[in-house]
Amino acid sequence: xxxxxxxxxxxxxxxxxxxxxxxxxxxxxxxxxxxxxxxxxxxxxxxxxxxxxxxxxxxxxxxxxxxxxxxxxxxxxxxxxxxxxxxxxxxxxxxxxxxxxxxxxxxxxxxxxxxxxxxxxxxxxxxxxxxxxxxxxxxxxxxxxxxxxxxxxxxxxxxxxxxxxxxxxxxxxxxxxxxxxxxxxxxxxxxxxxxxxxxxxxxxxxxxxxxxxxxxxxxxxxxxxxxxxxxxxxxxxxxxxxxxxxxxxxxxxxxxxxxxxxxxxxxxxxxxxxxxxxxxxxxxxxxxxxxxxxxxxxxxxxxxxxxxxxxxxxxxxxx
Amino acid sequence: xxxxxxxxxxxxxxxxxxxxxxxxxxxxxxxxxxxxxxxxxxxxxxxxxxxxxxxxxxxxxxxxxxxxxxxxxxxxxxxxxxxxxxxxxxxxxxxxxxxxxxxxxxxxxxxxxxxxxxxxxxxxxxxxxxxxxxxxxxxxxxxxxxxxxxxxxxxxxxxxxxxxxxxxxxxxxxxxxxxxxxxxxxxxxxxxxxxxxxxxxxxxxxxxxxxxxxxxxxxxxxxxxxxxxxxxxxxxxxxxxxxxxxxxxxxxxxxxxxxxxxxxxxxxxxxxxxxxxxxxxxxxxxxxxxxxxxxxxxxxxxxxxxxxxxxxxxxxxxxxxxxxxxxxxxxxxxxxxxxxxxxxxxxxxxxxxxxxxxxxxxxxxxxxxxxxxxxxxxxxxxxxxxxxxxxxxxxxxxxxxxxxxxxxxxxxxxxxxxxxxxxxxxxxxxxxxx
Lengths: 319, 434
Hints:
The complex is a heterodimer.
Chain A: H1 2-8, H2 26-58, E1 61-64, E2 67-73, H3 77-83, H4 86-117, H5 124-136, H6 139-149, H7 156-163, H8 175-203, H9 207-215, H10 220-231, H11 233-248, H12 252-258, H13 272-282, H14 286-318
Chain B: H1 4-28, E1 42-49, H2 59-66, E2 70-77, H3 80-93, E3 100-104, H4 105-114, H5 136-140, E4 152-164, H6 165-170, H7 177-183, H8 187-200, E5 206-208, H9 211-219, H10 239-253, H11 265-273, E6 276-282, H12 285-293, E7 301-304, E8 312-319, H13 327-337, H14 340-350, E9 353-354, H15 357-362, H16 376-385, H17 396-413, H18 417-432
GO biological process, one term (chain A): transmembrane transport
Organism (chain A): Kitasatospora phosalacinea
Subcellular location (chain A): Cell membrane
């Protein structure tokens, strides 16, 4: 999904080849595109739509993993129970704070890095490839390394802290410290990826704009603020939407941070994704897990709509 | 007439559809399995948690020597909680299960009551009497109401205290087993001695690893813990839980805990660095200590009878899932592994205490050089003789974890014990409330 959207970003090149003259076989030609799309929709129906609808069906029942062939009708009870569960609200709050802690610095840093990479640098390609390395690392590997770094008694970070005379931090049990730890992994993994997207966007901004800004006496910072950022607006909206969805679904990092689905001893970094997993695969309540999944899905749709509305509004006020 | 270009596109289309179909069918025919060659060779897969010690004690090698056509492949997960989770997912999906799966005693009630149909009745494999030579409650716990035998008992977990003689000496404490057993004949005595230790020990050397370890050990000394004989949940009111909770929180208040979470990498590392001086030690912990502290720990550790001189923590079973590829061969292996001779070997080499009464007779005089030649046979036998036959509930695992997590909050985030107690009850409700 991310790739196809990014590929769309650069403006279409002018001077496309002229349409070929009409020939026989027009009908087949018109059908062919649908044929090409059919495999995608076939797969989507089997692995996207069906699970989505079946999950909704499951969420209306009591289903236990240990006796998964039995389904007892519950109506909306799973949902009402969910909304009255303090742990659900706790997970929602954590998802939000970890989302902010990871997305905001991530995108700001990506923007800055992209700006630097946009200059003519020696070994530019090397830096650009290097930026993508964390993204290419698996979540599991990255998280395991970070979990070691953040270890309370034998971690590198606490070792540095205590050798500089500071108090070591309990990166697992403390609420903010653990959320920071999880966010650090997310930020590390995704900053380079976003930087490259920004870079692609920056390169589609015509050089003349910078030249004329320079002629008018604009400093580098002013150029960045008044040429680069406005030119990048659609790209920024895209990365914000994608990062928001990613943050809402955050799962692998907090799961592997201490290796349990509770999200810490006080559930202090349990995200919605983990809460779902805990209900379904630690406590074996598949019906409840399905309800969480649907609530998450609706939440993401809502967030995407909100993002789109804000973006549309900003576009309108600018014109 | 179609142009060549169109024809090509239909060809591409056709092959795409074909590829999709292949992809789909490839997905549906999944499933893992051990491949056996035609010459009668059999690979038996065994999936376990923690340290059962079969491999370490050389039992697999011995069995494979006795049965040249058999190869045994073992996989294991250190944390039983994660193992159980994976096992449930596989049972629900019906795939990826080994021929032999280990079951922890805290889970058997759940298996017996909810999942009897997912495991093979060992009677049908000729192992109806496999639990006959064991302590009576061990076999009774895996028998369904209609008489199916769902597992074969391996070890049980009589409790003692493991301690570091080098750290004790450095803090000016006695290291003699009998003297220590007298001093900590009660949990209060254990805490008092801990305070003496803390006053003299180096900073960063705590008395024990965690409040959770002490809690679990103390709860394990009572017959009724989380549910009573009628199956009613009593975890919020049972005296066993309340007393253990208040003792464990007193431990934290006195600053005697190293605040480690059991079964985590940090905890494992602390075995070799000596971050704690004592550890609540069910017999199977002996093998765990040897594994974690390694050769450098040899001679530093010792074992003495703990407070109350008894306790029942853990112990396991071996079961054959319905989907096992080689149930016959698996049953034979189980029969051999749980026989009294092998149980005795396992204790001598690994410390897992036999559930077989015959083996218990045989190991009475075993000592362990790793633990300063401590008479582990005698210490754990006495503990096992006084051991209560615990009432097992279906949610014991989940409830135990809720309490130990809450104790983690008390020691690591400074949560008030009363608040943490409420969190524990909330967590149980979250897991099974309706």
